[in-house]
Amino acid sequence: MAGGRSARGSRRRVAHAASVVVPFPRAEAGERPDLARFVPSGRSLLVAAGVLVGALGLYWAALASPVFAVERVEVRGASGPVAREVETATRDVVGRSLLEVDAAEVGDVVRALPSVAGVAVDRAFPHTLVVKVAPERPVAVARQGQSAWLVTSSAKVIREIELGTERHLPRIWLARDVDTAVGKALPSTFVAATRALAAVREVALRRRVKAVRLSGEQVVVVLERGPEIRLGDASHIVLKLAVAARVLPLLEGGTVYLDVSVPERPVASRYLNP
Question: Around Cβ 165, how many Cβ atoms within 10 Å?
């Protein structure tokens, strides 16, 4: 028992020895804490103010001087007419300081161009503003009398072109009473046609598409050599064109049309019937 008490006492002494409390010096009653040592000195404040004023001075000097003046706008991701449109839209930033140019504002101006789908603006010091452009992709040329326009898959008109140009693109023929203009979309009845032409790019028809024709709600793809492809309505366009791509090599010469409006049962004929 005596040995047990001795051991417990020894453990208590070890525990007390391991737990040491260091008293924090407290101010005497009525004495206020000395906060002055935590306040920056007057000299430190003057130095900080001088650094701030110097930085602001350098910034305003850079704005007012030609050190970072924009000498050119570099357009990336687009060429030809689209690049020229972007250059024209951003020419007023030339001569201004890169620090002064509002990249978001320039982006809004470029994004408003009908031929631009997306844009990002970066500064390339000391003298270049970089405008990265994602151009709209035309799928067809809309023709109306002596006028022609490039049209996207959403039927948006992005640019007027000269007759006879862009021959690689299929044609959509507009009646004279169809109202259209750059920046606007064709009437909704033409959306099925433009979507069909966009789908043609996903399917290897291996034959050039000359035009697309609408007959009521029926979409007809006209090939340069070979039968016309009757797609029926605008549903399952990609599937129907994929079926047409498989069937076309099997058709005999002189076939007038291939009807894939019901893709499970394609029908071909050498006679032009309704």
Answer: 11
Cα-only R_g, the chain: 38
Domain count, the chain: 2
Contact status, residue 158 vs residue 182, Cβ threshold 8 Å? yes
| Residue 80: how many other CB atoms lie within 10 Å | 8
* Torsion of Cα atoms, 89 then 91 then 96 then 100, to 10°: 10
The helix (run of H) or strand (run of E) holding residue 86 is: helix 80-89
Q: Which of 135, 151, 186 is the last residue of a domain?
A: 135
Biggest CA-to-CA distance, the chain: 121
- Provide the whole-model pTM: 0.73
Rounded Cα gap, residues 183 and 127, in angstroms: 32
Cis peptide before 135 (omega within 30 of 0): no
Task: Kindly state the tokens that stand for 158.
Answer: 């992005």
> Under the phi-then-psi rule, with left for phi > 0, alpha for psi from -120 to 50, and beta for the rest, what region is 173?
beta
| Whether residue 235 is found in the same domain as residue 142 | yes
Of residues 189, 203, 173, 197, the one with CA closest to residue 263? 203
Q: Which of 135, 155, 189 is the last residue of a domain?
A: 135
Question: What is the CB neighbour count within 10 angstroms for residue 60?
Answer: 11
Short-list 134, 136, 135, 159, CA closest to 148: 159
**What single letter denotes the amino acid at residue 61?**
A
What are the pLDDT digits (tens) for 74-133?
999 999 999 999 999 999 999 998 988 999 999 999 999 999 999 999 999 899 999 999
**What distance in Å separates the CA atoms of residue 229 and residue 221, rounded to the nearest whole number?**
5
Exposed e or buried b per residue across 33-54, where buried means at least 16 C-beta atoms within 10 angstroms of its C-beta: eeeeeeeeeeeeeeeeeeeeee
